[in-house]
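Quick one - inputs below.
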Amino acid sequence: AQRVTQPEKLLSVFKGAPVELKCNYSYSGSPELFWYVQYSRQRLQLLLRHISRESIKGFTADLNKGETSFHLKKPFAQEEDSAMYYCALNGGGADGLTFGKGTHLIIQP
Amino acid sequence: GAVVSQHPSWVICKSGTSVKIECRSLDFQATTMFWYRQFPKQSLMLMATSNEGSKATYEQGVEKDKFLINHASLTLSTLTVTSAHPEDSSFYICSARWANIQYFGAGTRLSVL
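Output:
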């Protein structure tokens, strides 16, 4: 069975500090990993996918197959980064996503 | 681009009645759409995969007779909660797949009295 674990329900950091949101997964094959973000009163939107290997809004995430992790990082947090962040896994094909429980990120001024 | 519209955003119904939720891809065609359920303070759980022109695929533990899914066109999938009961009260979210990315609707909050 596939599983996504986000160990932190809540993460609070000060503006300008580095941020790391942890995500670990279990899957027997080669999954596709995503980070979705949900700002207050808005819908889920894609932030990053591992295959694109790009930086969006200053965030990056690297897939580490050895550690089965896909942690989300940003070197300098901004207040507008405050949101709910979900790590998600796609087992391939037309499968739906398996989501972690989400981490509520709060950036304090 | 890649906008998904979900309607209604909020519905209240009496126990025993049926409720239909629509999910539309506005600017793209989606052969595959997905329905998720989110309980308060919990994550999204995949309920079913909706395939255009064929039967939906339900996740284990999801009653297909309770949650009827129809995907009659490339831009519309509907979820009907039949004979709704208070325990069906939840937040239902759809997504549509395009270029291997899922785009989400804003969700429907269902309250069954």
